[in-house]
Amino acid sequence: MADERGPSAGLSGDAPEAGLERPAQGWLIDDFRDAGRSQLGTSWRVVSDQVMGGVSSARMHRIQSGDRDALCLEGEVSLENNGGFAQINLDLAADGPLDASDYSGIWLVQRGNGADYSLHLKTSATRLPWQSYRAGFTSTSDWTLVRLPFADFAPYRIDRPLDLARLKRLGLVAIGREMTAELCVAELGFYTETL
């Protein structure tokens, strides 16, 4: 069923441990059980800087780890030819922006090769390809739940604040330095802080 080929198949840890359950208050974006579509009804894509003349490589594939399915980004990021990124991304709605203003941030259950990655958000205001709102995290060799509060997302090459009522796309990105990308995500979604 699942493809266990590639470097991410050999990452340590077989199944996400207890305690990695999704937050009680939130909205699931994807748990990768449906190979064709996310829980939002949209499909994941893989893209690299080759779309703008770079030479980085990017691959996307699915694995099964214990009782969970996961989506993996793998590739080699190169700064040659003004490049420097590999990513997997997902439109958050098929027919216009998604309103996430009732939520506090994005959570994900991830594992990887210990490198730093970014989660990028695009809104209706990010009209140029290089514009986004970015928050970083460091991948871990074992499955780990990461919370990225919306307050931590910094605008990149755009002077407007993040408009949570107009989200269009999210991307998991290896960017900005020469690196091997190996990142798998088993679940992700929006969460609400509880008092």
CATH homology group: Galactose-binding lectin
Q: State the secondary-structure class.
A: mainly beta
Terminal Cα span? 41 Å
Are there runs of 5+ residues with pLDDT below 50, and where?
Answer: 1-16
- Biggest β-sheet, characterized? 6 strands, antiparallel
The ordered H/E elements are: EEEEEEEEEEEE
Count of spatially separate domains: 1
Helix content: under 10%
Shape: globular
CATH architecture: Sandwich
Under CATH, the topology can be stated as: Jelly Rolls
Strand content: over 45%
CATH class designation: Mainly Beta
The pLDDT mean sits at 89
Q: How many helix segments?
A: 0
Provide the gyration radius in Å. Answer: 16 Å
Number of strands: 12
Written description of the protein model:
The structure is a single chain. With 195 residues, this protein is mainly β. The chain has one domain: Sandwich (Jelly Rolls). The protein contains no helices and twelve strands. It has strands at 26-30, 44-48, 57-65, 68-77, 85-91, 105-112, 116-123, 132-138, 144-149, 154-156, 167-175, 179-191. Strands 1, 3, 4, 6, 9 and 12 form a six-stranded antiparallel sheet that branches. A six-stranded antiparallel sheet has the order 2-5-11-7-8-10, with no helix packed on it. A hairpin with an 8-residue loop joins strand 7 (116-123) and strand 8 (132-138). The termini are far apart. Mean pLDDT is 89; it is low at 1-16. This is Complex I intermediate-associated protein 30 (CIA30). It comes from Thiorhodovibrio frisius. Residues 42-177 form the NADH:ubiquinone oxidoreductase intermediate-associated protein domain.
